[in-house]
Write a structure and sequence with these properties.
With about 160 residues, the protein is mostly helical. About 70% of the residues lie in helices and about 5% in strands. Helix 1 runs parallel beside helix 6, helix 3 runs antiparallel to helix 7 and helix 6 runs antiparallel to helix 7. This subunit may be involved in monitoring complementarity of crRNA and target RNA. Belongs to the CRISPR-associated Csm2 family. It holds the Pfam family Csm2_III-A. It comes from anaerobic digester metagenome.
């Protein structure tokens, strides 16, 4: 990836539009997006008080969110073994997925640097609540963002 970053708004809009329908996004594209977002979270710039500032998001900030997604994944696997191999998500688990949105919004409200990540993940969370396949793609997206964040030099 080149050091010339796409403008933040364009970047987030493009990804959020694509990720709003995870069903139609290939796993290859998920990996590409994760790479670009991971790179941006380490090397990107944003405006803070009208001055460019480094993103410098720490991996622990993203990992906390991944931990919440993993807890939902465990519940989903548990419900999968009890029920049929349906692609549907129970209402209880769907609610837990949707409640990730305010958690992410809270983190973004506390730390302005998280807002670009929220803008990318929020539509993916909505889509991830629609089916088990979409949830799996959401999980892989977040894992990929963390992996590429580390690869591009992100710190703990």
């Amino acid at each position: 990836m080149s050091e010339n970053l796409k403008p933040l708004a364009k970047c987030c809009d493009q990804y959020s539009h694509e990720l709003a329908n995870l069903e139609s996004v290939s796993i290859d594209r998920i990996v590409e997006i994760a790479d670009e977002v991971g790179f941006f979270l380490v090397k990107g710039k944003y405006l803070k008080n009208n001055k460019p500032d480094s993103m410098g998001i720490k991996v622990n900030q993203i990992r906390r969110f991944l931990d919440a997604v993993r807890r939902i994944e465990a519940r989903l696997k548990e419900s999968k073994s009890k029920e049929s191999k349906s692609k549907e998500i129970t209402e209880e688990i769907k609610g837990s997925i949707i409640l990730l949105r305010p958690k992410l919004a809270y983190a973004a409200g506390r730390e302005e640097k998280i807002k670009p990540l929220m803008n990318v993940l929020d539509p993916a969370i909505k889509s991830g609540a629609e089916s088990k396949e979409n949830f799996e793609k959401l999980l892989r997206l977040i894992e990929g963002i963390i992996a590429y964040h580390r690869y591009h030099g992100g710190s703990n």
